[in-house]
Design goal:
The complex is a heterodimer of chains A (83) and B (233). Chain A is an alpha+beta fold. Chain A contains two helices and three strands; from the N terminus they run βαβαβ. Chain A has a three-stranded antiparallel beta sheet, covered by helices on one side. Chain A is elongated, with a radius of gyration of 16 Å. Chain B has one domain: Class I glutamine amidotransferase (GATase) domain (Rossmann fold, 3-Layer(aba) Sandwich). Helix content of chain B is 22%, strand content 25%. Chain B contains five helices and eleven strands, in the order E-H-E-E-H-E-H-E-E-E-E-H-E-E-E-H. A nine-stranded mixed beta sheet of chain B has the order 2-1-3-4-11-10-9-6-7, with helices on both faces. A two-stranded antiparallel sheet of chain B has the order 5-8. In chain B, a hairpin with a 5-residue loop joins strand 10 and strand 11. Classes of the chains: A alpha+beta (83), B alpha/beta (233). Chains A and B meet through helix 1 of A and loops of B.
């Protein structure tokens, strides 16, 4: 069974995010009001062959811990669906 | 002393490192391609600057899984001298040989200029002949050199005197204005708990001859000569 795993990686809340700050400034300059915060992260999709959704999630979770995300500076979330 | 300079796809300071180690310092040099499983019996391993694997995903994140990194990790864990400059520092951090992370410069700009560094510890083979408070003029060239570590890790680095260099002004004052990238506490370089691994964002190998505008960086390599003569590795 093939599963599409969506990986959302965000800078952790307590980490300075210069890219997010720069985007927020640009939005402020464009006169968008009420923008409280912008965080710039990454979005990856990983197509995996696995026995079931749990196995797919476990596998991609390990990929995140080992390579895809940096646990010191980033949080990640996974969404798994049948491909 | 035998010095291995590791070359990743996208390394671009490998020849600077080979030149300083081989021609300026007169050491035996071994260029080591990233696919190699061994380091040719090197006493010192240098991971040079550049953009290994195009900095894809995160700087250093993919290079750390190069075949050669197993040998580098074994060498470092045995107490072997290991030095990561710029992208090499990023690779050492991703490989878990040094703590923390290197984020985008707070300016979001690539910064390429001379900076001043203040020596913070002499308790390492890389700084043992220097004096605490010495000021060195060395260039930086990076977009992601903003050193970050959680407060408890920064405290530990301070307590264990593992901060090798901080950014300062030309008079040696450690000021926010002298910080080119937003690094926590102006940190420019750190050593491992075994003190045999150094990671630094500035480029001592680009400032090892007066013709390049400064020879201050050579002092780091001279420390390694002294350490090698004294202790061997």
């Amino acid at each position: 069974m093939q599963y599409r795993c969506e990986v959302y990686i965000q800078p952790r809340a307590d980490i300075l995010d210069p890219q997010g700050d720069a985007v927020k400034n640009a939005l402020d300059n464009l006169a968008f009001t009420g923008v409280e915060e912008v965080k710039v992260g990454k979005y990856l999709t990983v197509l995996v062959e696995a026995a079931n959704a749990d196995a797919a999630r476990e596998s991609v979770d390990e990929m995140c811990r080992k390579l895809l995300a940096n646990p010191i500076t980033e949080d990640y979330e996974l969404k798994v669906s049948e491909a | 002393m035998k010095v291995a300079v590791v070359i990743f796809p996208g390394s671009n300071c490998d020849h600077d490192a080979l030149h300083v180690a081989g021609t300026v310092m007169g050491w035996d040099v071994i260029p080591v391609w990233h696919e190699s499983a061994e380091l040719g019996g090197a006493d010192l391993v240098i991971l040079p600057g550049g953009f290994s694997y195009g900095d894809y995903l995160r700087c250093g994140a993919i290079a750390r899984f190069s075949p050669v990194m197993d040998a580098v990790t074994t060498h470092a864990n045995k107490g072997g001298l290991t030095m990561g400059i710029c992208n090499g520092f990023q690779v050492l951090i991703e490989a878990g040989l040094l703590p923390g992370a290197l984020l985008n410069n707070n300016s979001l700009e690539f910064r390429c200029k001379f900076v001043h560094l203040k020596v913070q510890t002499t308790e390492s083979p890389f700084t043992r002949e220097l004096e605490i408070g010495d000021v060195m003029k060395v260039p930086i060239a990076h977009g992601e050199g903003n050193y970050f570590a959680p407060p408890d890790v920064v405290k530990q680095l301070n307590d264990e005197r593992r901060i090798a260099f901080r950014y300062c002004d030309e008079n040696g004052k450690i000021l926010p204005e002298a910080n080119p990238n937003g690094s926590v506490e102006n940190i420019a370089g750190i050593v491992s708990d075994g003190r045999n691994v150094l990671g630094m964002m500035p480029h001592p190998e680009r400032a090892s001859e007066e013709v390049l505008g400064s020879a201050d960086g050579k002092r780091v390599f001279e420390c390694l000569s002294a350490a090698y003569a004294d202790v061997g590795w």
